[in-house]
Amino acid sequence: MKVKGVNLGNWLVLEKWMSPALFEGTTAEDEYHLPRQLSREVYEARIKIHRSEYITERDFVSIKAMGMEAVRIPVPYFIFGDREPFIGCIQELDKAFNWAEKYGLEVLIDLHTAPMGQNGFDNGGICGVCRWSQCPEEVEFVLSVLERLAKRYGTRKGLWGIEVLNEPITEHAWKLMDVPNRYPAAEPEMAEGSGPNSLEFLRDFYCRAYDRIRTYLPEEKYVVIHDGFELLAWKDFMREEKYVNVVLDTHQYLMMAEAEGCAQELDAYRDYIEAHYKKDIREMQQYFPVICGEWCLFNSLACGCDTKGGQSVLNGVEGSSGERLDAEEKKRIYRAVAEAQMDAWNQGSGYFYWSYKLLTDTVNDKGWIGWDSWDLGRCADFGWFPTER
């Protein structure tokens, strides 16, 4: 099993930096606070237009033409429309399945957010709040969402698998990312008691989620678990015979490597990829099929400045005021990190690039030079991404 795919990030789960216009006229930094700062009518209009225009049938044609085989679709916990004030998006996922099946792509449904936050990131739905695993009724709610998704799509031809939860953070990453300071909570009282999830909790949750999903999911479809940013911690997990077709998802970004101390130089990136990504994936592939469910070409060297571990103008980091590198040099850097990373993912069972597109204006809005490398369409068009591999 080898999969080659791309994430449809910022479609059904919003990230402000990927689509800043959606947040205009508000101080909201995350999806939780957006509907709380807009009138119902404005919120509804913005979301409905965004969802209908951001990803369309044509995109599935383009993704297939790029040589991709699958899409990972982040969905929110309110996908079924049962958590006010949010608007559900199950119809959009239905459409995505129809498009995928029409054009020969498969879908990995990725539950990307949890109520009260599973990581404190903006992409977890609420900045600075990470208390989901401390709320048994919300853990149960997430399990019920997974169960309903499995029931609805389990036998669909286009289903590749279901990922039970995106990036539940554990201790090391919580400290490395300095979550409370990098993603300050808009309402500090909501964030009280926030902290990383324990591996013990995650192990228990994954086992419960597996049982609930497998009730409706044929054995040939995959159940995907995220490593919690601890790739090597899962060797003794789910070794029992009942667990079949479980895939381990790891997310590896060069900006995280920089945060760990990797020098912002091409040779240092290559060495890091070899010593960490490649070695660790090869090791873990003995226990699970391992996919890199999120990665990209973004790095500080190509940005021309230290992004301090991938922090942007939204985090108060200035960014480059002008291009420091010419187009050919940029292409050389990106091609090199693309080849090295794809070589690493090939030690495992494949990858999903983050992300298919973004609506950030990296030309007119100051400080965003280099951030176009998060957009697979642009990477392919510029020749940075080797679409033939």
Automatic annotation (TrEMBL):
Coiled coil: none annotated. Keywords: Cell membrane, Cell wall biogenesis/degradation, Glycoprotein, Glycosidase, Hydrolase, Membrane, Signal-anchor, Transmembrane, Transmembrane helix. It is found in: Cell membrane. It is a single-pass type II membrane protein. GO terms for cellular component: cell surface; extracellular region; plasma membrane. PANTHER family: GLUCAN 1,3-BETA-GLUCOSIDASE 2 (PTHR31297:SF34), GLUCAN ENDO-1,6-BETA-GLUCOSIDASE B (PTHR31297). This is Exo-1,3-beta-glucanase D. It comes from Schaedlerella arabinosiphila.
